Amino acid sequence: PVIKDNRVYARGSSDDKGPSMAAYYAIKIIRDLGLPVSKRVRMIIGTDEESGWQCMDHYLKYEELPDFGFSPDADFPIINGEKGNQSLYVRFRNDVAGGKNQLISFDAGLRENMVPQDATVIFTSSEADKIQTALEAFLATHPVKATLSTEGDVVTIEMVGKSAHGMNPAAGINAGTYLAVFLNQFNFGGDAAKFFSLITDFIHLEFTADKLGLAYTDKVMGELTMNAGVFTFTAEEGGQIALNFRYPTGVSAEGLEINLESALSQYGITIAKGGLGKEPHYVPADDPLVQTLLAVYEKHTGLKGSERSIGGGTYGRLLKRGVAYGALFPDSIDTMHQANEFLALDDLFRATAIYADAIYELIK
User: How far apart are CA 289 and CA 361, in angstroms?
Assistant: First the structure.
């Protein structure tokens, strides 16, 4: 870590090593002061939160589940609702025959829970000059950057957008969908043409899946969101689009799968469910845990606290009465999942004080 301008810079400084240390010192303060308590406190640190949560599966196999608690892995004043999380894969055959342009490969995105910043396509074409002119016009009216190179009749285009967390896809610029929209104006054959057409018509700038007939809003947890996180297509293996859905109560993963397949049936695709999804999680606003945490936040900040739901997922959802609580404040600069991640030292110390007070209120 590097401390500069009253900030600590490091991978994990705000997500989630800095907040973890704040929680650790909060417990240490209570212990060192010798305050009287009536409950046991356990700090559980996982190491697989961004992937499959195997750490927590292992923990729960050998240890008891806490009665209630919070994860310092989000925002103040509180996160008492977390949307369901399910990825669905839209799969295409590998028929790329016909057309003036023949697709060799298309690749965009690194993870399903991130907006793709980079996208690359390689194809053969007899109209490279026309494509170059069209690309220059496209870049003049769209928020992406791109380069085109040729080697014989092989054309390579690399496009750059802006990454963002998959729970808020509208905050990013999806290089994968923008590149597909550009390519959709040219003549490709077979499933390559269907691939570009489907992305253009149903996925590009469709953050709530409205055109797919999947849009839904819950009055407490908010709206369903969709992030097109990973795109792949090769002439040998065909294509796949990974769509990551964050959905509120009132929606099911099974319903999403059935309705998505129905909406896209004209493209001859298949739908597959990706991994183990997570159901929506909600702790009512009148729960004593929520009320206590909000009261402590209000006392320390002078700001009114209220319940909130997010599309992201934290370890808080492991507990029936589990929430996320800080460590970012409403005026904090959010650099989670970004280069030069940092957390302001004032925020770190203030969060530590809030955690110490809150934990003691829950266990005294």
Answer: 10
Residues 6 or more apart whose CB falls under 8 angstroms from that of 166 comprise: 111, 112, 113, 114, 115, 227, 229, 244, 246, 311
pLDDT in tens, 194-241: 999 999 999 999 999 999 999 999 999 999 999 999 999 999 999 999
Domain regions of the chain by residue span: 2-47+66-83+281-363, 85-278
d(CA 203, CA 160) in angstroms, rounded, equals 18
Please identify, in words, the CATH class of the domain defined by 85-278: alpha beta
Share of the chain above pLDDT 90, in %: 91
Number of H helices, E strands in the chain: 8, 20
Cβ(180)–Cβ(142) under 8 Å? no
Its pTM stands at: 0.86
pLDDT of residue 338: 79
Q: Which residue, among 177, 48, 46, 167, has the nearest Cα to 113 in the 3D structure? A: 167
